[in-house]
Amino acid sequence: MNIVLHSSDLFSAVLAVSMVSILENNKEEQNLNFFVIEHEISESHKEALSMMVSKYNNANLIFIPMPDINNQFGLGLKMIKSIWLFDSYCRLFLGTLLPENVERVLYLDCDTLCNGSLREFYDTDFEDNYAAGVIDCLSDPYYELFDMDKTSRYCNSGMLLFNLKKWRDDNMEKTVADYVRSKNGYVFFMEQSVVNILLQNKIKIVHPRYNTYTLMVAFSHDNLRRLRHCTRYYTDSEIDEAVNNPVIIHLTNGFYVKGRPWIEGNKHPFRNLFMKYRALTPWKDEPLFPDKSNWKQKAVTTFVQVLPQRVMCSIVGWVYNVWRPNHIRKSMK
Length: 333
What we know:
single chain, alpha/beta, three-stranded mixed beta sheet, globular
């Protein structure tokens, strides 16, 4: 089983939690190959991660230096507010970054937890698809913004099972690079939108238990739909199944939750599970990350938590699904 994650040195502690949760829940696997695309992870942190993995006799850890995605693949990416955010594009170039004998790989953001065996999902029949993924809760205006056919489904890219053989055979890396250049290096939601736009109706949709993200837990079914106006989504019973029995948990952030599980004083719904696995890592005795949110961010979080959820979702839903797409469309002209 091949699993790829990417991380900076700062996020080594979070990466370790994700990896150990996979190791603990997949001990029956004969070979777990972790490929970590690392952005200047220190030697001491690499050693700590390697020692952690070595305690499991079925696992291997391979570090791959993060390439200069922009220059190596000629993407012409644009910085946003002087912040470089483009390491995440590495998931679209795994055909080059991983060994040729890797023909199927599970990509995970390092803010994920594994809560069960991955084998059934990993063996998913791709049919004629490039990947398998879980639908993101996105409204029609975003499908229109991205010129996406409404028969397709926009998936969250924090978990994607890649059919790397088909990806290479069809030279999708060139397709990706050509598309990003055609947009002058800027695509809203970055690589997540790129993969969804280019793979319309070529991502196999799987059960949300394989990418149970915070939105599913934080809101009732009705309020989630008020918030995101999503029409191409899972049934209520499927969401309930994912929340009650998740296999892959995505610790996504949002104004509606105070902090993520590695932040001091957080109130994330999966904080206890995160701490359970953190206790098995070399960072178990280290302090959590300090809360660096500014006063405006704290004020927004406090305000939305005071409001009745139904009211908050209606207000924010209009901003997110009406005002924001129109604003983005105007800024892209």
